Each structure stands twice: as structure tokens, then as C-alpha cells.
Amino acid sequence: MSLFDDPDTARSSRSTAGTPLAERMRPASFDEFVGQEDVLAPGKPLREAIERDRLQSIILWGPPGTGKTTLARLVAKATKAQFVSFSAVLAGIKEIRDVMATAEESRRKLGRRTIVFVDEIHRFNKSQQDAFLPRVEAGDIVLIGATTENPSFEVNAALLSRSKVFILRALTEEEIVRILERALTDPVRGLGTEPIQVDEGVYQAIARYSNGDARAALNLLELSTAGATSPVAGGSKRVELSLVQQAVQRRALLYDKTGEEHYNIISALHKSMRNSDPDAAVYWLARMVEAGEDPLYIARRLVRFASEDVGNADPQALTVAIAAKDAVHFIGLPEGNTALAQCAIYLATAPKSNAVYVAYNEAAEDALRQVADPVPLHIRNAPTRLMKELNYGKDYKYAHNEPDGIADMDCLPASLEGRNYYRPTNRGFEDTIRKRIEDWKKARRTHEPT
Fold first, then answer.
1. Taking the model in full, what pTM does it have?
2. N or C: which end of the chain has fewer CB within 10 A?
3. What is the pLDDT of residues 272-310, one digit of tens each?
4. Where in the chain is the domain with CATH 1.10.8.60?
5. Can you tell me the distance from the alpha carbon of 44 to that of 153, in angstroms, rounded to the nearest whole number?
């Protein structure tokens, strides 16, 4: 538990040596805030509530580095209420109850409400979240919860029903570039007093790598400028694209305690399962689990493998992978290790097909490359009289009324007629699907007029 610093003091402290650039450049007003115009543009309800100090309980849901904590600081700056900040990573039930008791007394004796900001609220369990509920209902506190997880699954339903959820999206590349440019030119909080030249394409490369995360982008900019040692005219340092790429590599190596092996071993796991080698698959899985890898990361890779490399050769594979993900999420580690192992062995021993993966990629390429043809009239719905007059649904053939359950009717746009994306293999259940599709094609040909 901690109170946010006074905004003026915070601004001054952010310029001190050793403070990360991302923290120094945190917006101190809405004028400096980049992105989220759909919820924070002038006149929008959330911004109006903050500026007029009339905020009610809210949940801020969005990826890292999109402005959740910054919004809380803007609330702290604008409000006359007591403002208390929690980190769900550090605080426990005792701290929560102490603050709730203080908030109740403050409102009863002084008529002053308390705004409570809970960062990473999804990390509080249900009983911890329940501790907020009576005070929210009584109006003693206004709760601001920040989460990167879907609040429908991670926030107490009763608490969620008494809060308004605002979704913060990942920042665009253009927005990230604006933040980077400001950081490099700001002489007070940024790098504006340092003689730095940035090569063309550097900002865009950082923006792409940061994946909509302003904090990650500023950290990478700071790391890149720190490594820029080659002097240019006037004594300036030059940030080259290759320097950014090196910084990205160093960051990736530090991402996981196993460093580069994080990527090597997940690759080994994938390729072992793809090659139907259950012994190698369970070995590489154990290496990752025992090294402390996030089990949900492993589960996500297994789910992807089930649809990409097994597909309809064994449709049950995706069900097994989802079940393993749910089991790990439910019981965690170490108990969840066998669920992951069961899944990896199942996937390794399942028949393999990437026909679904290939089909999607080819269809996506056509969807992006070809003209977006309109939906053929005969397979459009016609719920209104006008639409029927415009021939919506005309000549549609109801498959169930056809002798073989197959209508002689094209469903692709005319420009893609005859395109064959899904080509099932003869392995596993996909062999049954392949024969079924061949029979359907024969049935359609018998229905064609002579």
C-alpha cells in the first residue's frame, strides 16, 4: 500500500538521475496523454468524470503500457478525495482491511470519500476482492482496478457489476512514434539535452517491436541511446537501426531466466511433437517446467500446435490442449505439470496434418490480395421485402431438402469459384473427411444440369 506522491513533487522526482525514461515521461496531464481517444477525448464520460472529480468505480482493462497507471495518477492529481494505491502483487488481506476501515471512518467522521487504485487487480483472489465490496456498496470508496486480464473471468462478479469497465487498446505504431519523438526532444524529463541523432526507420522499428506498449518502447529507446557511442558531426551520438536490433536481442535474452534457451527449448518441444516423438517431447517439456517457465505460456503453445500441426487428423487434440490449459490455470504448478505432460504426449502421438493451417493461410492471402467481392445474392438473408425485391436469397437451395444433403450451389464469390483451400490428408480422421468431401463433389456433379 502506498499513496501516490504529490503531482508536483512527482514531476520533479521523475527528472532525477537513475529514474527510467519510461517513468520520467509518464504523462502528467491529458494534454500529454497519447492514444485512447475513444474513452479519453474531450467530452468523453471517463475524462469528464476525472476532470470534474465525479468518478465512480471503474475497471481499466488493457495490455501493458497503454496508460492504466497513468490514468490513476491523473485521478490522484484531480481529486480532492483521499487517494490510496495498492499493488496486488505486494498487498495482502490485512492491508486491504486496514484501508477499508480507514475509508469508512473518514467518510463517517469527515464526509470524505477515498479513491482506491488497485494495480493488477486480477492477482487478488476472490476473497481479497470481496473485502472491497461492502465499502463500494456503502459509497465509502471509489474503486479503480487495473488489469491486463479479462475482468469477466478475473474480477469478482459482484464487484464487476458495480463498476464500469473501460477498455484501453494497444497503442498504434504512429502513437508510439509520437511518444518516442517527444521523449527524445523533451529537455526536462526526456533526452532533449543530449546530442543524439536517430537514423531513419529507428522509431518505426521500436514501435513495431514494442507491440503497442509505450513502456517497452521507451525502455528500448533508452537502451538504444545508451549504447550509441559512435560520434557524428558536432559530437552527437548516432542511434542506428542495427543498434536497436542489438538492444532487442539483449532484451530477449534477458526475458527469461533460461535466456536464449527459452527459444531453443520451445522449438525443440514443437519439433519433437511434430515428429511424433513422445519421449523427446516430454523431456523438453520437463526442461521448461523445471526451469521455471510460465506454465500458461507452455499451454498456449500446445493449443497452437493442436490446431496447426494436428488439426482435423485428430479433432480431439484441440480439446485435450484446451483442457490442459484450463487444468494449469485451475491448479497451477507443480500439480499442473502432469496435465501439460499428458497433452504433449497426446499431441506427439496423434496423427499429424497441417491442412487447416495451410487452408487458412491461402484463404487469408486471397482475402487480403483479391478485391473484396460482395457476398453472392443467393446466400444472403432476405429478412425484408426490399431485400427480396433486390434478389437477396434468390435461387438459394436448402441443403437438407436435397437428396444427398448437398446442393448444387457455389458459395464462394465468382472470382474465386473453384478455389480449393482445404486439402485434407489421408492421416487419421482427416482421411474420413477427405473421402467425405470427394463423395460430396461427386454428388454435386450428378446434380448438374446436362
1. 0.53
2. C
3. 999 999 999 999 999 888 877 889 989 999 999 999 999
4. 173-255
5. 27
- The correct answer on CATH 1.10.3710 for the domain covering 372-447 is yes
7-167: which CATH architecture? Answer: 3-Layer(aba) Sandwich (3.40)
Name residue, grid cell 476525472.
50
* CATH C-level class of 261-349: mainly alpha
Residue ranges of the alpha helices (H) in 79-118?
A: 93-110
CATH 1.20.1250.20 applies to domain 173-255: no
Separation CA 45–CA 68 (nearest Å): 16
User: Distances from the Cα of 409 to the Cαs of 76, 105, 366, 392, 439, in angstroms?
Assistant: 63, 72, 21, 15, 16
311, 354 Cβ separation under 8 angstroms: yes
Task: State the Cα–Cα distance between residues 25 and 195, nearest whole angstrom.
Answer: 18
Residue 318 corresponds to which amino acid? L
Q: CATH 3.40.50.300 residue ranges in the chain?
A: 7-167
Phi and psi at 25, nearest 5°, equal: -90, 5
234: which 3 cell numbers?
558536432
Residue 46's nearest CA partner among 19, 23, 75, 16 is: 75
